[in-house]
Amino acid sequence: MGGCGGPWNNPYPARERGQNILYSAFVERPKHFDPVQSYAENEYVFIAQIYMPPLQYHYFKRPYELIPFSATEVPRAQLFDAGGRLILRLVRGPDDAQLEELNREFADIVVEGRIERAVPAPPEISDADALDTDRIAFVFDRRQFGRLRQMIDHLNDLVVTPETFELPEPMTEEQAERPW
Q: Is 67 helix (H, G, I), strand (E, B) or coil?
């Protein structure tokens, strides 16, 4: 009988039989080996052999908890200054009337005090971190993230757009044909 013997259609080389080798197939070719851009499981098979991530999820805890992997500790995000105030950096801060309007309209997300202008913190100054931006600060009710988003949208609407906008002169044929 022809079908009762060993596998006649074995795709693996006979010299590798008995060795500790894992064969697997890809659904699609890996596209990225950069851990920031990669999102597919088949790419992570390679990435895990090259990069050691700083954090990992605790296997048993739900909701998920980050724990150190190659890092010594889990970093903590600091959105607040030493006084516990939330600092928002703005390309253009509100004027006095707009600041009063913010205080009236968004008083429910301020735990104590008022929304007020702020100066760069010492770490920002030492790092020269966005020193040219305006800042507002307030003690934020950390359960009101939806209202905070509404406040940010409101601040974005305060940006003044010029009433008149002039289009630049169209390119001449000579400018368009330049090789650079």
A: strand
Query: Could you tell me which residues are beta bridge partners of residue 137?
Result: 87, 116
In the block, residue with structure tokens 């289009």? 167
DSSP designation for 142: T
Amino acid at 40: A
Phi, psi of 42 (to 5 degrees): -65, -25
Q: From residue 138, how far is each of 34, 75, 85, 124, 134 by CA, in Å?
A: 39, 24, 5, 18, 14
Type of residue found at 25? A
Express each pLDDT in 5-35 by its tens digit: 666 777 788 888 888 888 877 777 778 777 7
Transcribe 73-123 into DSSP letters.
S------B-TTS-EEEEESS---HHHHHHHHHHTGGGBSSS--EE-PPPHH
What is the CA angle 166-170-174, rounded to 5?
150
Single pTM value for the model: 0.48
pLDDT reading at 160 higher than 70:
no
Return mean pLDDT, the chain. 80
